[in-house]
Write a structure and sequence with these properties.
The structure holds 3 protein chains of 3 kinds. Chain A contains 26 helices and 4 strands. Chain A is mostly helical. By secondary structure, chain B is mainly alpha-helical. Chain B folds into 2 domains: 1-84 and 120-128, Four Helix Bundle (Hemerythrin (Met), subunit A), CATH 1.20.120; 129-167. Chain B is built from 6 helices and 1 strand, in the order ααααβαα. Chain B is globular. Chain C has a single domain (12-107), classed as Helix Hairpins. Helices cover 70% and strands 3% of the residues of chain C. In chain C, helix 1 runs antiparallel to helix 2 (37-60) and helix 2 (37-60) packs antiparallel against helix 3. The chains are: A mainly alpha, B mainly alpha, C mainly alpha. The interface between B and C is large, with 90 and 75 residues.
Chain lengths: 630, 167, 109
């Protein structure tokens, strides 16, 4: 397919790759910590600059025609089936690229302060750049196969970064859990992709770039596999992939464990960027879901259920990062609810605002942890608004944003989603979403109170974080404040030009704001002076919620243990007995016994040899005679 | 008259050869075996002369019956084998197998050469001229002759080396 | 083929060949059965001798002088072989004290 060969796109992805290579190969040996950190951050800054330049070029194009492409090389070519390494910039990928590079840059700078003194400092920055490279490949890819490359790459980066302090076996196994759970989702993604390609090929379409796919989506809608409509099946399978990557039920279990990684990693990958890849992917492939509304229902219900479940679990957690992790799962559920209701642009809007305030909250949590020398238990914090004023102000900004208090960012995006859900007619889903919003306000207020209010319950001396950490947080706070207003005015028309302008119902706004207010007030009332007295009131419920409804244990019993037993059996019987025993050792034993039996012929006795000689001679003569006479 | 004598001579010599062969194979004392072999070789020489191969016959006496047998008898004495061997009897199976094998070989070889058995050999014919044989040896078979001399040289060298006490 | 009434001065080729092959077979039988090394070598000489007889017979029957010349070559070969063989036998006697062929089994296995 013809490409516009817009060169800046590849310049967007190359600096992080270069940063990875440089920091990875020579970082520890040749660069100081400062140089390594600056190198990594500079690479991302370059990408951000190129993203801005590309955006401005994009804006210069007419609204209905905003597309910039660059085909770098042909990757797969098998007969009529070709897949190019082609990059694409349209409003959706432009927004994603800006969010990724922008927030990434801020977190890189923050990390210079957070990771100071760590033995793997340069490795960390190399991995971070590695991640950004693949994330950009993911959002800029022009065909789902290349997107999958980015998908897998960020999964690998996630594994490497979660298990960054790999000497601790728990942290290492958290990384493993993330990767394996992701893999399960990826199986669904691949299956969906293959079905999509099959449906396309059956209709004679061989190019897999998004323009071709969206033009031929009817081919998938028309076909069916094993009696199920192809578009629906593909949509559900792709959503399974999104479930894994974006931590929705039932594949969300890796995200809370992923908090074992360094906090900036949690901020970047597990809040702002990687986990949003699923939302992006669904938005990208929305043309397919338009052809199969039943799949959208699956997305809607799953997103809603996940949002609610995660919010409930967050209410009872003690670890500050776990609260934020479940919060992320919950907010991602909101984004999927938006997509499921047909309003993917609202989902992307929430993705953007969530990137701002969730990254801010995570970085703030990191600041607290860093200032307390590693403490993460909320019950051992308290009163930090006096000891860490800047962090407190910034956290409060994030708190207001996520609770949905106007006019901060979270209010705009969350309210829009709830409106869209209500307008699409799913009343129960809307109600659950509203309840979840109240819970969100509750648990984040609880976090604020436990960490920053009352008196300090810990033993360490708390100190404020350096500027290299607080300045990026400040920038994110600014974005959390103005991002909503700016986004509502500009982002939505940019993403969907030609869509009718929104009119918002004042009643809806009032309802969602009161839900937020209710949550905040409830938190101040319940949490108050003493921590967790509802735990004493309903101990069994508390234990259930605190233990995340034992989902991990259920998985362990239903899936992991049988798998482990099966693997053990496969090792003992087919591998050891059959392959090792019969084939490998058996072959060896066979040849040894052949050898031993044959060596019985070497008696060392000359007369025995002569007998054999004579017998052979007789046979030879007999054969000759037979040949002659017969 | 003459044919009768010639035939008688032939069959007598044949009998002698066979008897001597049997003796070589069956006698107990190695010395007796050697003497039996000597007898066989002399009889064979006579057979050659009867068949007109005079050069072969005379050379047989000089080389075979003379040099080779002398060597054998010398070796028998040097290795103290002139005593009868005190060995346990051979297993019957081995004897029967060997006998069967030898008989089979005999039958097969006869069968193989049966194509030529319509021919007759004249007894006491004109012997081949030495000049003709020399012409063959030094003419057509000259390379083989030279190789043979190499072989004999190798044999001498080997025997001398083997006899030395220190190399 | 079997002419037992010697009324001519010719002998059937079959008889001479039979004689030669019989001597050869006797030598083969002896080689398989005897245990004394020197007697073994004598049996080898018998086999060679049997082959020589057949050669001489064929030299006469079709009429060419060539096989007889090969017989002369065979003498030389046999002499060389006997010389080396007996030298080895003497050596074995010196080393092992016996000429029993069953004692020579270092190549077993």
């Amino acid at each position: 397919m013809e490409g516009n060969f817009y060169p800046l796109l590849k310049w967007m992805i190359l600096p992080p790759l270069a940063g990875f290579v440089l920091n990875g190969l020579i970082g520890r040996r040749l660069l100081s910590e400062r140089a390594g950190g600056i190198l990594g951050s500079l690479a991302i800054f370059l990408s951000f600059v190129f993203a801005l330049l590309s955006l401005s070029d994009l804006l210069n194009l007419p609204a209905a025609d905003r597309l910039l492409r660059d085909t770098m090389f042909t990757w797969i070519s098998a007969g009529p089936f070709t897949v190019d390494f082609a990059l694409r910039l349209d409003p959706l990928s432009a927004v994603m690229a800006l969010v990724v590079t922008g927030v990434s840059f801020l977190i890189h700078v923050y990390s210079i302060g957070y990771m100071r003194g760590d033995r793997g400092f340069h490795k960390y920055f190399a991995y971070l750049n590695f991640f950004v490279f693949f994330m950009l490949v993911l959002v800029l890819a022009d065909n789902p196969v290349l997107m999958f490359v980015g998908w897998e790459g960020v999964g690998l980066a996630s594994y490497l970064l979660i298990g960054f302090w790999y000497e601790d076996p728990e942290k290492a196994s958290a990384g493993k859990k993330a990767f394996v759970t992701n893999r399960i989702g990826d199986a669904g993604f691949l299956a969906g992709l293959m079905l999509l390609a099959a449906a396309m090929h059956a209709g004679g379409v061989y190019g897999l770039d998004f323009a071709t796919l969206s033009a031929n989506a009817h081919l998938a809608a028309g076909a069916s596999f094993a009696g199920v409509n192809a578009a629906f099946l593909i949509g559900v399978l792709l959503f399974v992939g999104a479930t894994g990557k974006s931590a929705q039920f039932p594949l969300y279990v890796w995200l809370p464990d992923a908090m074992a990684g360094p906090t900036p990693v949690s901020a970047l990958i597990h809040a702002a960027t990687m986990v949003t890849a699923g939302v992006y992917m669904l938005s990208r492939m929305f043309f397919l879901y338009e052809a199969a509304p039943a799949a959208l229902d699956v997305v809607l219900v799953t997103g809603c259920f996940t949002a609610f479940l995660a919010a409930v679990i967050a209410v009872a957690q003690r670890d500050i990062k776990k609260v934020l992790a479940y919060s992320t799962v919950s907010q991602l559920g909101y984004m999927f609810m938006a997509v499921g209701a047909g309003a993917w642009a609202a989902g992307v809007f929430h993705l953007t605002t969530h990137a701002f305030f969730k990254a801010l909250l995570f970085l703030a949590a990191g600041s607290v942890i860093h200032g307390l020398g590693g403490e993460q238990d909320l019950f051992k914090m308290g009163g930090l608004r006096r000891h860490m004023r800047t962090t407190f102000i910034l956290t409060a900004t994030g708190w207001l944003a996520i609770s949905g208090v106007p006019p901060l960012a979270g209010f705009y995006s969350k309210d829009l989603i709830l409106e869209k859900v209500f307008n699409s007619g799913a009343g129960l889903v809307w109600l659950t979403g509203l309840l979840t919003a109240a819970l969100t306000a509750y648990y984040i207020s609880r976090l604020l109170i436990l960490a920053f209010m009352d008196k300090y319950r810990g033993k360490e001396h708390a100190h404020e974080s350096p500027a290299v950490m607080t300045v990026p947080m400040g920038l994110l706070a600014v974005l959390s404040v103005v991002g909503g207003m700016a986004g509502a005015a500009w982002l939505l028309p940019f993403l969907q030009p030609g869509a009718p302008p929104e009119h918002h119902s004042a009643l809806m706004i009032a309802v969602s704001v009161s839900a937020a207010a209710a949550g905040i007030i409830a938190a101040f009332l319940i949490t108050g002076r003493r921590a967790e007295d509802w735990a004493a009131a309903w101990p069994r419920t508390h234990r259930l919620v605190y233990n995340k409804f034992y989902v991990d244990e259920v998985y362990e019993a239903l899936v992991l243990k049988p798998l482990a037993r099966f693997a053990d059996w496969t090792f003992r019987v087919p591998d050891s007995k059959v392959i090792d025993g019969a084939f490998v050792n058996g072959t060896a034993r066979l040849f040894m016994s052949i050898g031993r039996n044959l060596s019985a012929a070497q008696t060392g006795n000359a007369q025995f040899y002569a007998v054999v000689f004579m017998a052979g001679l007789c046979l030879l003569l007999a054969a000759l005679l037979a040949g002659y006479y017969l | 008259m003459r044919p009768l004598l010639l035939n008688a001579a032939f069959y007598l010599l044949s009998g002698a050869i066979l008897a001597g062969a049997a003796g070589t194979v069956l006698l107990r004392r190695p010395l007796y075996c050697a003497l039996s072999l000597l007898f066989t070789l002399l009889a064979t020489s006579g057979l050659y002369i009867l068949l007109g191969a005079e050069l072969a016959g005379y050379l047989q006496i000089i080389v075979y019956a003379g040099a080779v047998m002398a060597l054998f008898i010398l070796a028998i004495h040097m290795t103290g084998q002139d005593e009868p061997a005190k060995l346990p009897p051979l297993p019957r199976l081995l004897l029967m197998a060997a006998g069967a094998g030898a008989a089979g070989l005999f039958a097969l070889l006869m069968l193989a050469s049966s194509r030529f058995f319509i021919a007759f050999v004249k007894l006491a014919p004109e012997p081949y001229s030495v000049a003709e044989q020399a012409g063959l040896i030094f003419g057509r078979y000259a390379p083989q002759f030279e190789l043979l001399s190499l072989l004999v040289l190798a044999g001498i060298a080997g025997a001398v080396l083997a006899a030395k006490k220190k190399l | 083929m079997m002419n037992f009434l010697p009324l001519t001065d010719s002998v059937p080729l079959a008889h001479i060949v039979g004689l030669g092959v019989a001597v050869f077979a006797a030598g083969a039988f002896g080689f398989l059965v005897r245990r004394n090394l020197i007697v073994l070598l004598m049996c080898v000489e018998l086999m060679l001798n049997g082959a020589n007889i057949v050669l001489v017979a064929f030299s006469r029957a079709p009429g060419a002088a060539d096989p007889q010349v090969w017989v002369i070559f065979m003498f030389a070969v046999a002499a060389a072989e006997a010389g080396v063989g007996l030298a080895l036998a003497v050596l074995i006697w010196r080393r092992l004290g016996t000429l029993d062929i069953d004692a020579l089994k270092e190549l077993k296995g």
